[in-house]
Amino acid sequence: MREIMPNIILNMLVFSLILITLSAASSANENAVLGINAAQTITKNTNSTPEAYTLDQAVDFALNNNPDLQIAIERIKQAEARLGMALSAFYPQVSARASYEHSNNPAQVFAMIIAQRDFDNNSMQNINSPGYRQNFRPEIIGTMSLFRGGQDYQRSKAAELGIDAAEFERSTVRNALVEAVTVSYYAYMAAQEALKVAQDSNRALSSELEQTKRGFEAGTTLKSEVLSLNVKLAEAKEAEIRATNAIELSKTSIANLLGLENAATYNIVAASKLTQPSPIPSFDQMRELALAERPEIMAAARQVEISERELKVEMGAYLPKADAYVSYGQNSQSPGFSGHKDNVTVGVAVEMNLFSGFNTKQRVSAAQQKVKEMRERERKTRLAIEQEVKSAFLQLQSALARLQVAESSQQSAEEALRLVNEERRAGMATVTRYIESEVARNKARSSFIAAHYDALSAETALKKAVGDWK
Predict the structure, then answer these.
(1) CA distances from 254 to 61, 103, 237, 297 (A)
(2) E-assigned strands of 243-385?
(3) pLDDT tens figures, 60-99
(4) How far is 442 from 113, CA to CA, in rounded Å?
(5) Pair 299, 384: CB distance under 8 Å
(6) pTM for the whole thing?
(7) Does the domain at residues 48-465 carry the CATH identifier 1.20.1600.10?
(8) CA 411, CA 239: separation in Å to the nearest integer?
């Protein structure tokens, strides 16, 4: 037995050293990866040339650099670590300990003599007054849980579900992020087009104002026409200011979504062809798709399962617990280790809590209430998603209807301007009438552009509502 046990302990120590070495190597690799990522980030930030992004490129960059998504990824890693912590309960626990005692207590001194294997006939003569004696005990202790009322198993299953929930939360962030980038991109494009329309109006009105002023000075034009053009020019300049501000706001919003600290470090590239909104499917199809695909619902369902597992963990406290343990060491009066004085203890301990001051009962009750809470949260999530899908569906319907009206209005305004221009050349239309037609055409064009991008944004919101980018 004395020859076998040191070999067992030696093997356990070697195994523990291997695990520690592998863990250290893994941590070093993770630190190296973090260092590479940090270096890449510094390289990106120090690049003075502004990057240009299309919509797809902006979405891809945001998925790789947005802090909210990175936070979600770190939460997944935390959930994986919690699973490892839960699974550690199924492995033996090994610890080393060294203790020193110095006493003249007869009972303790007698125990030291026996443990140090120094008992002889002379030891009985001074049993009541043994004097001081010291004891050095280095030892290795191993324990292993045999049964804990199923608590370890339930904790491991809850941790596995926690990884799933964290994955679904990451999908939720991804789905919302793609929608936010897309909508901000469309807002930027709409503001750019609105700025072009406002600038065209400013140029046309400024030109007509100069001609009208010359006519007024020559006595061929009324002052009211000059004043009317001044008012319309002021309105056009105001529209240009609003469009310029909208461009900066949308660009700042995109920079925030992309995880960029400075909006001046990038530019937005317009699409070569304006995307057309897709036909609207039925609401029932969208609702069923959302209830099946939205990661929020799946995450809420996992939270319900986790709370049920946690309830079983608390109920396991009513059952007995059994642990196996082994201790290997020696007792001697001087430091060091000798295989001739080693001591081995092997045993099994069974424990059952008979009364905890109602602590276990209250913990079970709290876990039961949490299960009910998670079920209500799941129901609330389903209702909120149904409402979101309905709202996005109605907004897309309204946006497409407004787009048709705006397109018809633009065509009518273009035709009206063409006819007024011909009348003006024939001397049948005044300058004021021509300017009014041109301003109306510009407003109709601006309304059409805004309606088009509103329809694309509404389509994007509906895709997000059904979990299209999870």
Answers:
(1) 11, 74, 26, 28
(2) 266-268, 321-330, 342-351
(3) 999 999 999 999 999 999 999 999 999 999 999 999 999 9
(4) 105
(5) no
(6) 0.75
(7) yes
(8) 22
